[in-house]
Amino acid sequence: MAKAKKGKKSSNFRKFIKWFWILFVSGIFCIFLVFQLAAWGVFGEMPTFERLENPQTNLATEIISSDGATLGKFYLDDNRTPISYDDLPTNLIQALVATEDARYYDHSGIDARGTLRAVVFLGTKGGASTISQQLSKLLFTKRISGGAMGRIIQKVKEWVIATRLERQYTKDEIIAMYMNTYDFGNNADGIRSAARIYFGKEPSELKTEESAVLVGMLKNSSLYNPMRREALVLDRRNTVLSQMYKYDFLTEKESDSLQAMKLDINYNPESHSVGLATYFRMYLQGFLKKWIEDNPKPALEGERDKWNIYLDGLKVYTTIDSRMQKNAEDAVKGHMKRLQKEFFHQNTKKRNPTTPFLDLEKEEITSIIRRAMRTSERWRKMKANGKSEDDITASFDQETEMTVFDWDSPTMEKDTVMTPRDSIRYYKTFLRAAMMSMEPQTGHVKAWVGGINYRHFQYDNVIQGSRQAGSTFKPFVYAAAIDQLRLSPCDVLPDSQYCIEAGKHGNLEPWCPKNSDGKYSGQMYTLKHALANSVNSVTAQLIDRVGPKPVVSIVQDLGLKNDILPVPAIALGTEEFNVYEMVGAYGAFANQGVYVKPVMVTRIEDKNGTVLFEYVPETKDVLSKDVAYAMVNLMEGVTEGGSGVRLRTNASKDQPVYKEIITGYPYEFTNPIAGKTGTTQNQSDGWFMGMVPNLVTGVWVGGEERAVHFKSIRYGQGASMALPIWGLYMKSNYEDEDLGISKEEFPRPEELSIRVDCSISEEEEEEQINFEDDLEDLDF
Questions:
Q1: Which of 28, 288, 426, 594 has the most crowded Cβ, counting Cβ within 10 A?
Q2: Are 424 and 395 in contact (CB under 8 A)?
Q3: Cβ neighbours of residue 302 under 8 Å, at least 6 residues apart?
Q4: Can you point out the beta strands (E) in 654-694?
Q5: Residue 43 has pLDDT above 70, yes or no
């Protein structure tokens, strides 16, 4: 009996063991089968080998300056610029591993111990996801499943993808991909954007406590948002630092010291309307769109057939120097704020809503406002929504809350309540400005400022807006005369009333231009003196002698527009040009007569570094070296004793208001500078073109409407409105010796055939040149 019972127990035990192993093996098989089915795509599409090799993430196009700085980016929803593992600081990698996956270097995508712990303790002792699993979730999981079974299947798929990623990439590459993919919030997609936006620096420059903040955000960037929940983020950062101590990446003393530090966020939002070179970036956007139309993308299966500047991660290498660009923007803001203050002081009377439109009747002002209403965004949107013109017009007289531009605010804007009609009038009271700076030998544009504030004034006055050139056009007349008539800066002409009769040079009636002050000295002026002081009577004589057609021919060769009417009046700058054209044209004077078309983009690469575009310089010989040098010599006279002389001296000490607002800047330049001021009728436009041997810069200042201007030429001339911007800009450039801005003489042709030294006779100059040549020939 006892034996029977014993045998029965033994038989039952064997059955138990048998079924245990059957169930165990079956369970293992089922788990294997589930993973295999997931790998086969039974539970849903799995990424192919090609997708694993090239994960599809949207990448921002990066705009890179000539000195290697990031000027900005083009993106839609993903402001992502990937970097390599070598660009990640060690402290960031240590913080990531210590916090997210301590056994990262010991597993192959799935951490068995972490998974078992998560199952046993239901996730209360930590999660099971490895860095590889988190990456697979970011790259290939579109949305989280709601049900429990769906979530389990999704987890299985993530495990399969994680092991594939581990086979496909190195551990370092997986970390780099993970940090480049994660969305840190506030347009900070990827670690590079996060470092720039939250701390204003590149990832390689991150301190340990800063890296801990960003790693802490990996748990939930929305919850741990430094801009909203400072206390929560600080606590999470300290948790990361504690983990770094736990895994021996920090000593206890280091961890405690770092945890005691405050949360030092340096928030630098990245958007299309803020940051450096905003107007240039707007121009570049149009340039790239045109380039895309002309350059189709190589066809790859499943990809777009056209490049997308917002998604494809292009790298655009530009000629802009970020340091010079900042100097240019600071110069524009610094001067325009003072100038606007004086403009308001002179032109606003007891808040008269019609100011500052000078010389206009009420009907003309109404017409200007009406035209602005019809071209406004408000009008466009309401029209698109089917509103009648009467309803739209009525809306412009309803008070509404708005944020407007304001020079006196630290943020340069203020909240206020006004009608849209009054806001149009308000914005038209502001003077606008534009400047461009170019290296004449290469055509490389170094700085581009299209206005006073891109957020509120998006019209780019560098290349979109053309204005009358005024006296800045005169050098082209002088160049034609010197080239065609073989004149020299030392030749003389009388300062007296001069008329060109009707019928000559296409004139329909007599043309008798006046000097700016309406007076004539009757004296004989050298061409150098006449240009330096913008004597109109001499310019009239020159264009009469040389004729308008040679002037137009030279102007066209220098890149200015082609539809200029060849009549004598062009000599005084009645034609309209933009700053971009004028700087390119003046560049030929500094470049020994060779015109180089301004260039802004040198190279475009795709996300893998493949070169898609390289620029080819466009040049043209327009003037001989002798003529170009003679013109430079003429324009040096402008800053030595003419309308640009204030660059050499400080402001007038007996005019304190004028000194403070307009010219109260200690320029006192001593190096060679060639330049030309320009002022148009009624002081509507103020220009200054300034040159040193390796930098040509053009500045324009004026109102959006020609009726917006200073009452007197004292404030409204180019020497007061535009020249100070050039002075401030160049002063900042010279303070940074690394920029290499020239202080030397302009290069003189070896055998100069044109007399330029007017202080001695022609014979004495010839003897001096021969003596210098003899000295060069001597072998010491």
A1: 288
A2: no
A3: none
A4: 674-679, 685-692
A5: no
Residue 438: phi and psi, rounded to 5, are -140, 145
d(CA 638, CA 514) in angstroms, rounded, equals 20
Domain ranges of the chain: 359-419
Q: What's the CA gap between 691 and 46, in Å, rounded?
A: 62
pLDDT tens track for 590-629: 999 999 999 999 999 998 899 999 999 999 999 999 999 9
Q: Is the dihedral of CA 73, 78, 84, 85 positive or negative?
A: positive
Q: Crossing angle for the helix pair 171-181 and 90-100, nearest 10 degrees?
A: 90
Distinct helix (H) and strand (E) counts, the chain: 28, 18
Tokens encoding 27: 């369970």
**Tokens read off for 194:** 């996060």
778: how many CB neighbours lie within 10 A of its CB? 6
pLDDT tens digit sequence for 253-283: 999 999 999 988 988 888 777 789 999 999 9
* Joined tokens for residue 723: 């020249």
H-assigned helices in 169-277 = 171-181, 191-199, 208-216, 230-246, 252-259
3-state SS assignment for residue 229: coil
User: Which pLDDT score is estimated for 124?
Assistant: 44
d(CA 38, CA 45): 9
**pTM score, two decimals?**
0.83
Find the distance separating the first CA and the last CA of the chain, reported in whole Å: 131
